[in-house]
Write a structure and sequence with these properties.
Blueprint lengths: L1 H24 L4 E5 L12 H21 L4 E5 L7 H7 L7
Parallel strand pairs: 1-2
Length: about 100
């Protein structure tokens, strides 16, 4: 569980802060985080993953506010990728997701 938070939330946050000074010197700086539909899903087998992706979504919104338009922070949802987590999501009906 700790590694999911480290990989999906803490590392992107710390990397963004570490490069903030450099980004502020760039023309039209942008940061993109990878999120997932799981951020809004309620699927029993992927609770930690879903929570970390929801945290990434919230992190992006808060960094946007903190950077006051000087650095744009966005989210990309790559769509379905054939992974073990995606296989679990496919087991649920559309209305549950």
């Amino acid at each position: 569980m700790k590694s999911a938070w480290q990989i999906n939330v803490i590392s992107p946050h710390l990397l963004t802060l570490a490069f903030a000074d450099r980004l502020l010197k760039a023309e039209n700086p942008k940061v993109l985080f990878v999120t997932s539909r799981a951020a809004v899903a309620m699927v029993p087998g992927i609770i930690t993953y879903a929570c970390t992706k929801a945290a990434v979504d919230h992190l992006a919104r808060n960094l946007n506010a903190a950077f006051e338009g000087k650095i744009a922070v966005g989210l990309v949802i790559p769509g379905e990728v054939d992974t073990e987590i995606q296989n679990e999501l496919r087991q649920f009906e559309e209305g549950q997701f």
